[in-house]
Amino acid sequence: MIVINVSEELKTEQVKVDWLDYWRHFSMIKNNFCSEVNCLNSQDYGALVKKFDDKGLYVLPLCKKHSDNMLKQIEISDTTEIISAEFTL
Ligand SMILES: [Zn+2]
């Protein structure tokens, strides 16, 4: 699945870590891998993404490399759990 990274507004490291905590709080799948389809690095940050067919904002985990290398589009594994950003902790 291709998603669009919209994390530019996440300026600080703390905000990205907070989104990773958010994802981990709601995720059912307890793995520790980056969401990028071919990546086996561990998760460092949360990212905000959109899907093409949906206006909603979603959260998924990325490694530092994929988080810093802010490609607009990112291909994620179909088994990745993406969590709506609209829940409250
Ligand atoms: Zn990665």
Structural commentary:
There is one protein chain. The chain is of the alpha+beta class and 89 residues long. The protein has one domain. It is built from 2 helices and 5 strands, in the order βαββαββ. The chain has helices spanning 13-26, 64-68; strands spanning 2-5, 45-51, 58-62, 73-75, 83-84. A hairpin with a 6-residue loop joins strand 2 (45-51) and strand 3. The termini are far apart. Bound molecules: zinc ion. Zinc ion (ZN) binds next to helix 2.
Defining traits:
single chain, 89 residues, alpha+beta, 5-stranded antiparallel sheet, 2 helices, 21% helix, 24% strand, globular, binds zinc ion
Topology:
Elements: E1 2-5, H1 13-26, E2 45-51, E3 58-62, H2 64-68, E4 73-75, E5 83-84
Radius of gyration: 11 Å
First-last Cα distance = 27 Å
Count of helical stretches: 2
Overall tally of domains? 1
Approximate helicity band: 10-25%
Strands in their spatial order, largest beta sheet? 4-1-2-3-5
Number of strands: 5
**SS-derived structural category:** alpha+beta
Instruction: Name every ligand kind in the structure.
Output: zinc ion
Task: Look at the structure and give the mean pLDDT.
Answer: 90
Low-confidence stretches: none
Gross morphology: globular
Strand content: 15-25%
Please describe the biggest sheet, giving its number of strands, its sense, and whether it closes into a barrel: 5 strands, antiparallel
Q: H/E series, N to C?
A: EHEEHEE
